[in-house]
């Protein structure tokens, strides 16, 4: 039984839900998502753009974590822990569209890891640029930007 009856829903490239029986018995039914090529391409593009945007977003977080760690290691740990918690839904936002577009869990995880690597990269950039410390005004500006 399909939930798409009109041709309009098929033209916009949206995923459609169909219920199909996996066996001859009616007790074991599953939900399947069928997408046309346009919907898969759009979903894949959305996942890649999310990975790019989150990767760019993660660079200043790495810089801020490094700057916080220079002043006080407990501040750096607190920042890293909080940022790590909020990176979980960001990773899901990257991996889920890629997984549903390609059907490959590894591709979703790969793009999630690629976008997450930007944060330690930002920390390394900060370490190379700042060194062992910075003045309070620069630190305040940096935390204000993040």
From TrEMBL:
GO molecular function: zinc ion transmembrane transporter activity
Keyword field contains ATP-binding: no
Membrane topology: Multi-pass membrane protein
InterPro entries in the cross-refs: ZIP
Record keywords, A-Z: Membrane, Transmembrane, Transmembrane helix
Subcellular locations according to the entry: Membrane
TM segment ranges: 108-130
Composition-biased stretches (Polar residues): 9-21
Protein name in the entry: Zinc/iron permease
Organism lineage: Eukaryota, Sar, Stramenopiles, Oomycota, Peronosporomycetes
């Amino acid at each position: 039984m399909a939930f798409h009856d009109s041709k309009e829903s098929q033209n916009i490239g949206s995923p459609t839900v169909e219920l199909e029986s996996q066996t001859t018995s009616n007790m074991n039914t599953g939900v399947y998502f069928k997408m046309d090529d346009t919907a898969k391409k759009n979903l894949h593009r959305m996942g890649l753009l999310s990975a790019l945007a989150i990767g760019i977003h993660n660079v200043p977080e790495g810089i801020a974590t490094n700057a916080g760690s220079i002043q006080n290691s407990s501040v750096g740990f607190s920042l890293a822990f909080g940022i790590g918690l909020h990176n979980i839904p960001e990773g899901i936002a990257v991996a889920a569209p890629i997984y549903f577009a390609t059907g490959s869990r590894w591709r979703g995880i790969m793009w999630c890891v690629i976008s997450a690597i930007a944060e330690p990269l930002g920390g390394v950039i900060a370490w190379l640029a700042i060194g062992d410390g910075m003045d309070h005004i620069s630190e305040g500006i940096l935390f204000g930007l993040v």
